[in-house]
């Protein structure tokens, strides 16, 4: 039996986003961990994971449909999606003028009153286009709604945005006044 790049990506995401302590990994304040430590932790899972190496990680990154992880020299991190305790430090950035968020229709009532909040994650995840927002929203509903975020007005009011990757932006939270159902 062998593993796929998608399988490896799920395991790496679990280790770097959600439960690094299960793999005896210690993330720094920006979420980085030495690649050699991650490889050792993966190999300790045994079975198909025993042969994972740096090349396997690089292939996983090269074939990914979404950029969820990044390598910088001898370290690797998950770019976004963290649910770990503590806060991953991000650098503020200027977002596009409009961002989108896909979700289940029954969530709109709460969002309309409370705004977008990160729920079990460290940040609210936003998309640069409707298509990505629909794709994300389908994880929660077969017929998701797409919300539009006026990121210029939100940023002017003090909301901090962070670039996740080419299509994902992050925010600590987005007040309801800057969120509407997309046209």
TrEMBL record:
Keyword field contains NAD: yes
InterPro entries: Ptrans_KptA/Tpt1, RNA_2'-PTrans_C, RNA_2'-PTrans_KptA, RNA_2'-PTrans_N
EC number, UniProt record: 2.7.1.-
Matching Gene3D superfamilies: 3.20.170.30, RNA 2'-phosphotransferase, Tpt1/KptA family, N-terminal domain (1.10.10.970)
Keywords per UniProt: NAD, Transferase
Enzyme class: transferase
Biological processes annotated in GO: tRNA splicing, via endonucleolytic cleavage and ligation
Listed GO MF terms: NAD+ poly-ADP-ribosyltransferase activity; tRNA 2'-phosphotransferase activity
Main function: Removes the 2'-phosphate from RNA via an intermediate in which the phosphate is ADP-ribosylated by NAD followed by a presumed transesterification to release the RNA and generate ADP-ribose 1''-2''-cyclic phosphate (APPR>P). May function as an ADP-ribosylase.
Family: Belongs to the KptA/TPT1 family.
Name of the molecule in the record: Probable RNA 2'-phosphotransferase
Record organism: Microlunatus soli
């Amino acid at each position: 039996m062998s593993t796929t790049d998608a399988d490896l990506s799920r395991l790496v995401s679990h280790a770097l986003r959600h439960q690094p302590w299960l793999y005896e990994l210690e993330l720094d304040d920006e979420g980085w961990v030495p690649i050699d430590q991650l490889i050792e932790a993966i190999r300790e899972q045994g079975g198909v994971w025993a042969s994972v190496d740096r090349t396997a990680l690089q292939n996983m990154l090269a074939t990914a449909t979404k950029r969820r992880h990044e390598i910088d020299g001898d370290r690797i991190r998950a770019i976004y999606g963290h649910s770990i305790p503590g806060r991953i430090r991000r650098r503020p950035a200027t977002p596009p003028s409009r961002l989108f968020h896909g979700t289940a229709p029954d969530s709109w009532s709460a969002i309309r009153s409370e705004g977008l909040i990160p729920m079990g994650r460290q940040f609210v995840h936003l998309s640069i286009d409707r298509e990505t927002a629909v794709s994300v929203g389908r994880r929660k509903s077969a017929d998701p709604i797409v919300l539009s975020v006026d990121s210029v007005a939100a940023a002017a009011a003090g909301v901090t945005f962070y670039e996740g990757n080419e299509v994902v932006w992050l925010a600590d939270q987005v007040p309801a006044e800057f969120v509407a159902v997309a046209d």
